[in-house]
Structures are given as C-alpha cells and as structure tokens.
Design a protein that fits this description.
45% helix; globular; 186 residues; 4 helices; alpha+beta
Length: 186
C-alpha cells in the first residue's frame, strides 16, 4: 500500500531535490483559488456580453477558415445540446460543484489544486450566471455558447475552464497529489 507523505506549501528540498520526509507547513491556497475563479468568471462573462452585443443575430465569423468560427448559440442543455429539458438539473449540479469547492477550500494547501479548482469554480459560476439571469427565466436560462470548431459542439470560455480544471484534477490525482498537499508515493 502506498505510504502518504504530507507536503504542504513549497517544501525545502535536499541536495538531490527530494522533499523532506516530515510535514512542512504552508499557507492555504484560497487566494489562488478565488483569483483564478474570478479571472475565469470575468473572462467568460465579458466574452458572453460581447457575443450577445456584437454577434447574436449576425452571420458567424470565420476565425480559421472552416476549422473554427465564432457563432452565437443559446444552449439550454449540456454539451452537444443534450438534455435541454433538464436545465434545472444542470443549475443544481453547478450549485453543488460550487458548494463542494467552497467546502474543500478550507483544506486546500496545494497550489496546483487551487489553480484547477479555481478554473472549475469560475466556469461553474459563469454558466450558472447564464442559467439564472438569461431567458427564458430563473434557473431555466440558456447558456451563451460561441466557440464553434468544425464537427464539434459549440462551447464558451466557462466550458473551457471546466474541462481544463477537470483535466488538471485527473492529472493531479494520478500523480498522487491531494488538495491538502499530501503526496502519495509508491
């Protein structure tokens, strides 16, 4: 069974670059978490405001020939428009993700986890904002999507933040790094 080693913050290293065996205290990474979340949220919100003001009800803009275009699309469902009748469910999932991240923040001592969770939080807040404030109404709003690669679903910056944050979490988990800074080594 793998033995856990507690490495919190940026540990001192020995001459060979190895972390010491004992616990190293560091600062919680809440500022990183919320800074990344705020940046992801503001970029998403700003891009959607621009798309609604300048692109909605207009022809798509070709960015890279037929490979990528910007096209305003309202999506009440999830990726690929799946589950359009379950907008309330997606709203509930976004709220649940936000609550879990907020609770996890109390035990967060890992910078990489703070960054990944910040992306996830910012993306969830971005799409939740659409679900609450956009038509057709409270908790039923359609998300504004606009990044349209050829032969793929149309998405937005919040979706990108969620996918990137989730991907980083998978990598961190496979590498044995926990949100509290514990490193599991075989």
């Amino acid at each position: 069974m793998a033995e856990a080693e507690r490495v919190i913050g940026t540990p001192d290293v020995d001459d060979e670059g190895a972390a010491p065996a004992g616990p190293v205290r560091g600062k919680r990474k809440i500022v990183v978490l919320f800074s990344v979340a705020l940046l992801a949220y503001l970029l998403d919100l700003g891009s959607k405001m621009l798309v609604v003001a300048e692109l909605e009800h207009h022809e798509p803009i070709r960015v890279v020939g037929d490979l990528l275009r910007f096209e305003a699309v309202r999506n009440a469902g999830a990726a690929f428009g799946i589950g359009e009748a379950y907008t309330f469910f997606f709203t509930f999932v976004a709220v649940a993700v936000i609550v879990v991240i907020a609770r996890l923040a109390r035990k967060l001592y890992s910078g990489p986890w703070a960054f990944a969770l910040g992306l996830l939080l910012g993306g969830a807040l971005g799409n939740l904002t659409d679900r609450i404030f956009r038509e057709p109404g409270l908790f039923k709003g359609a998300v504004v999507d606009f990044i349209a690669p050829a032969n793929f679903a149309v998405f937005n910056l919040a979706d990108s933040a969620i996918v990137c944050g989730g991907f980083l979490i998978v990598i961190l988990s496979f590498r044995g790094l926990d949100p509290d800074g514990t490193v599991h080594r075989d």
